[in-house]
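Chapter summary example.
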Amino acid sequence: MYNFQFSNPTKIVFGKGQIQNIGQEIDSSHRVLLMYGGGSIKKNGVYQQVIESLSNHDLVEFSGVEPNPSLETLSKAIELVESKGIDYILAVGGGSVIDGAKFVAAAAKFEGDDPWDILAKGAKVVSALPLSCILTLPATGTESNGNSVITKRSTQDKLPFSSPHVYPQVAILDPSVTFSLPPRQVANGVVDAFVHTIEQYLTYDVNAPVQDRFAEGLLSTLIEEGPKALSEPDNYDVRANIMWAATMALNGLIGVGVPQDWATHGIGHEITALHGLDHAQTLAIVLPSLMREKKEHKAAKLLQFGRRVWGITEGSDDAIIEQAIAKTAAFFEEMGVPTTLSGYGIEASAIDALVAQMEKHKLHAMGEHKDINPDVARRILENAA
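The structure predicted for these 385 residues follows.
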């Protein structure tokens, strides 16, 4: 196991009815920017709970944060922060809203000329406004980490940044608010959490059985509970297990002391940027093909994955690996998330532009061995066409 340091400062408040406590978690001396998306929180009762709990707070609202949050939209929120004297941000929504809030929090304190440099040039975030969140869509794990991904629509760039300064102070997770999610979002959330776990697990062995077993437990839970969330949408226990699994998948715990991959994400971001697919949809396209492309380097972990997670005990090593990959793709398909470009109407001719984007973003050393470059990514995409 590699050396590591681990700290997660986010306070998790989990369970039914916990949204009403957000007012107690944010000091009433703050002027709060309430950020949310397209208005679904007003239909499922979340907005009303938040407003009631924050009745003693000075509150300014900013709505309209879109899926794959854009610089163009978030720049308006940054202007609002400056003009209204905002000193605290509360994000209410899924990963896009929370990612957007993190960027706004960092941009509000950024001392450079252009906050986009945080993503495009890796400019360091040295401080940020404090923020908290109320999660309505379990998927990305952003509610308890310092990661964010933002899109610049004008240039079709989708880029990540990470900083310890943008960890949410408090994250409220009420599984019951996910009952009203459409099946597509439920499925996306399960696939997203699954691939997050895989990116930190399916690499090579460094004798870290604690992290491996944690990861395998998350994967098994998602495989068991994911289809139930579609067939039993009002099952609180199922929703609770999925919500907690998605949080645990990317709160840093399973990734400490082990190598990590993230090439599936790097390639997937380009598909979203050029074609507008949901984040999880791009991961479902890339992962099975990437597994096959890199199965020689990932062989030991693929065997472990096949035996422990999928329960495959018979056949040659290669047969077990192939079955594990096939079962993973079948699981995504069972969740209603296609695993090929053609499944979303994207033709193979689009691959050239995707590879060109990777060249533009200098994605020349992806994966745990830094050996996935645009040429290798081309093969992965061609085999996923």
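To summarize the output: The chain has two domains: 11-177, 183-382.
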